[in-house]
From TrEMBL, chain A:
It comes from Qipengyuania mesophila. Pathway: Pyrimidine metabolism; UMP biosynthesis via de novo pathway; (S)-dihydroorotate from bicarbonate: step 2/3. Heterododecamer (2C3:3R2) of six catalytic PyrB chains organized as two trimers (C3), and six regulatory PyrI chains organized as three dimers (R2). This is Aspartate carbamoyltransferase. Residues 23-165 form the Aspartate/ornithine carbamoyltransferase carbamoyl-P binding domain. GO terms for molecular function: aspartate carbamoyltransferase activity. It catalyses: carbamoyl phosphate + L-aspartate = N-carbamoyl-L-aspartate + phosphate + H(+).
TrEMBL record, chain B:
Gene3D superfamilies: Metal-dependent hydrolases (3.20.20.140). InterPro entries: DHOase, DHOase/Allantoinase_Hydrolase, DHOase_cat, Metal-dep_hydrolase_composite, Metal_Hydrolase. This is Dihydroorotase. SUPFAM superfamilies: Composite domain of metallo-dependent hydrolases, Metallo-dependent hydrolases. It comes from the Bacteria. Pfam families: DHOase. Residues 72-222 form the Dihydroorotase catalytic domain. Keywords: Pyrimidine biosynthesis. PANTHER family: ALLANTOINASE. The keyword Cell cycle does not apply. It comes from Qipengyuania mesophila.
Length: 341, 409
């Protein structure tokens, strides 16, 4: 498998660095459709590499990637760490769960400190919306948003798109984009950065998106972002091609939003019977971690031909490899990507 | 410093409550001696050169005493909110603050309505009135307990003190930092419905009516809230309200870049609410425009939006922003100075805020058309947290007098 960073569909994008003219990856909201497709196409080579026995490249050899996580995370941190290491970067993880980091200047000071250590890319997760941008404004290297508050989680949306593309292609579809597909995102939309990023990404790729949640967990004015809003999950599922389930983010809830997990499951749990309302062979997605028996039943989560939940995890590493590769090209002096820093 | 020599400002356009008059203004012994007369022998003469001569601004509800910024903005008196550290909930603190600005600036302390501003026990309002408090304020917060609020209003009515209230239902607001709507949703900011304001207003207007109290809402920022104030006034409730320039100049669009200088309390509203504020300024529903001056440094503002403290440094831009309403032909000049001087002075019972015989000689000479650019980095205030950074505007103070004495700037 080739390891050179030549996009597989070079004709689809502007040449060289114009294909992705951003220093940072803060949100899907800042990306054009062709930039999203560029990252997906770039990730394909890493999907292939990751399926080989020897999963290593030296593209980022000598570069330092810092994963600065101000909020607890297991899977996303691991995924970024593996992505960086498979590309040969020196990866350092900084755990700074917010309880232990004093607010105030500390966040900016942390950014300045990381910058002074000459990181070549910084991956940030933070509990406050906009925190990643704030840090990006203070540092000289590319910044990747691994989730900021309830704002965006761009690599999650990209990996979801890649997983969906692979599932569709495995069924023989061309899946150049998602035109004609109806995708339901159901769960705690209000507190979900995954929902926002996915809404933007899936729409940019041509899909119709239905959002489903009880009123208290549906953000006001989300229709203005082009989504169709449902409170009745059965109605939302009618004829849908994909059901993407989100967990209840109880850690972000102040006050009571639903009476009980049991009642939530009664209204919004994805059961096998409910899934029958969707299109035949409809796919099931979940960004994890799952609460089995609450938003999704085990027998649905584990359906071999329908659930692509583990494929999402697999694609996460490839997408993050692609993002790290693309964003460091300028610093590495890749031809056509501008001067080395 | 006391005024030593009579002073007459000639060739000015005097903005008085009953209109604009060309002529002279004579200041003697710290008071306005006469309006529109010729100077007398021995007077110091100042030529206004055809510029506006206006009352010094009275800023109702500021969070810090920041003299250079107030003087820049033509403000000669400010009512200080009790949200200090410690809160102004004891007579000793009030009397200390009441003297703190003299001689060239007067601070009117607002007594904390409740001990520690916690909304539970009514503070010693009568003793604080003796100590110099000109009004009572609930602080940055709404008093959630209706029983406490009713007893507070009854007590303040007995003492003839105005109650300055914050109208946002605390339970609905929670930890929100934005108004629910498309902008907050796109940015993923914790938000509260704008109805939190109307709900709080409806309760407090009803309680004030019941108590026969004077109530002033420092900021009313929504169409629904303003309709409640308008209706209350129409049926004779002693209700007044104010706003800061942020809510008639900006909508929540100003927060799209997570710019914390636009993090305010109440938060910026949608465009329709901004238009409603402008309509209420035009039709007289809004009585006061204040700066809400709250200078905050990087430790409070250089943070993610939802972690930043609310507030803006507004003293320097209050006059120019209010004059923009005149340029937009929403209001006339006498009404503009009623909003920023006469009405707030009346609410506080201060003998100032208008060019009239016997009033304190707090006077500004203003060049209403002088252009300038608001620059956060170059402000007089202790911090430059203005949501208007980079905006060109018009209207500057040329000279300011406090009690007939020129303030050196």
């Amino acid at each position: 498998m080739t390891s050179t960073p030549n996009p597989p569909h070079a004709a689809r994008y502007p040449a060289g660095g114009l294909a992705f003219p951003h220093r940072d990856l803060i949100g899907i909201g800042q990306l054009e459709r062709h930039e999203i497709l560029f990252l997906l196409d770039e990730a394909e080579q890493w999907v292939a590499l990751n399926r080989q026995a020897t999963k290593h490249e030296n593209l980022l050899s000598g570069l330092t990637v810092i994963n600065a996580f101000f909020e607890n995370s297991t899977r996303t941190l691991l995924s970024f760490e593996i992505a960086g290491k498979r590309l040969g970067a020196d990866v350092v993880n900084m755990h700074a769960a917010q309880s232990s980091v004093k607010k105030g200047e500390t966040l900016i000071d942390t950014a300045i400190t990381l910058n002074a250590m000459r990181a070549d890319a910084i991956v940030i997760r933070h509990g406050s919306s906009g925190a990643t941008q704030l840090i990006a404004d203070k540092v000289d290297c590319p910044v990747l948003n691994a989730g900021d508050g309830q704002h965006e989680h761009p690599t999650q949306a990209l990996l979801d798109a890649l997983a969906l593309r692979h599932a569709l292609r495995a069924r023989g579809a061309a899946a150049e984009d998602f035109t004609g597909l109806t995708i339901v995102i159901c769960g705690d939309i209000l507190h979900s950065r995954v929902a926002r990023s996915n809404l933007l990404c899936l729409q940019a790729l041509g899909a119709s998106v239905r959002l489903c949640a009880p009123p208290a967990l549906m953000p006001v004015g989300i229709e203005a972002m082009g989504a169709e809003v449902f409170h009745d999950f059965d109605a939302a599922l009618e004829g849908a091609d994909v059901a993407m389930m989100l967990r209840l983010q109880t850690e972000r809830m102040s006050g009571q939003f639903i009476p009980s997990a049991r009642e939530y499951h009664h209204l919004y749990g994805l059961t096998k019977e409910r899934l029958d309302r969707a299109a035949k062979d409809a796919l099931v997605m979940h960004p994890g971690p799952m609460n089995r028996g609450v938003e999704i039943d085990s027998e649905v989560a584990d359906m071999i031909d329908r659930s692509i939940i583990t494929r999402q995890v697999e694609m996460g590493v490839a997408i993050r490899m692609a993002a790290l590769d693309v964003l460091t090209r300028r610093a590495r002096g890749v031809a056509g990507w501008g001067e080395a820093a | 410093m006391k005024q030593q020599q009579p002073l007459t400002i000639v060739a000015g356009r005097l903005v008085t409550p009953d209109g604009i008059h060309d002529g002279a203004l004579r200041l003697v012994d710290g008071l306005i001696d006469s309006v529109g007369v010729d100077p007398q022998d021995g007077d110091e003469i100042v030529d206004a050169g055809g510029r506006l001569v206006v009352p010094g601004l009275v800023d109702l509800g500021v969070f810090a005493i920041d003299k250079p910024a107030f003087h820049f903005g033509g403000i000669t008196r400010a009512a200080l909110m009790p949200d200090q550290s410690p809160p102004l909930d004891l007579p000793s603190r009030v009397s200390y603050i009441a003297k703190s600005g003299k001689p060239d600036f007067w601070v009117h302390p607002l007594a904390a309505a409740t001990r520690g501003l916690e909304g539970r026990e009514i503070a010693e309002l009568a003793l604080m009135r003796e100590a110099g408090a000109r009004g009572v304020a609930t602080g940055r917060q709404w008093i959630a307990d209706a029983g406490v609020m009713l007893r507070l209003l009854q007590y303040a009515a007995m003492l003839d003190m105005v109650v300055i209230a914050h109208a946002e239902d605390a339970a609905l607001v929670g930890s929100a930092v934005a108004t629910a709507g498309e902008i907050a949703t796109r940015r993923g900011l914790p938000s509260a419905p704008p109805e939190a304001e109307a709900i709080a207003l409806a309760r407090d207007i009803a309680l004030a009516e019941m108590a026969g109290a004077r109530i002033h809402f420092r900021q009313v920022t929504t169409r629904a809230g303003l309709a409640l104030v308008r209706a209350g006034k129409a049926r004779g409730v002693q209700v007044t309200c104010g706003v800061t320039p942020a809510h008639f100049m900006l909508s929540d669009l100003a927060t799209v870049e997570f710019r914390t200088f636009a993090r305010l309390s109440p938060p910026l509203r949608c465009e329709d609410d901004r238009q409603a504020v402008r309509e209420a300024l035009a039709d007289g529903t809004i009585d006061v425009v204040a700066s809400g001056h709250d200078p905050r440094g990087p430790e409070d503002k250089r943070l993610p939006f939802s972690d930043a403290e609310p507030g803006m440094a507004g003293a320097e831009t209050l006059l120019a922003m209010t004059l923009s309403l005149v340029r937009d032909e929403l209001i006339d000049l006498p009404r503009a100075f009623d909003l920023v001087a006469t009405a707030p002075a009346r609410l506080l019972g201060a003998p100032a805020g208008a060019l009239a015989t016997g009033q304190e000689a707090d006077v500004a000479i203003v060049d209403p058309d002088r252009p300038w650019v608001i620059q956060s980095a170059k402000m007089e205030a202790t911090a430059g947290n203005t949501p208007f950074d980079g905006q060109p505007t018009q209207g500057r103070v040329a000279q300011l007098y406090k009690g007939g004495v020129a303030i050196k700037r």
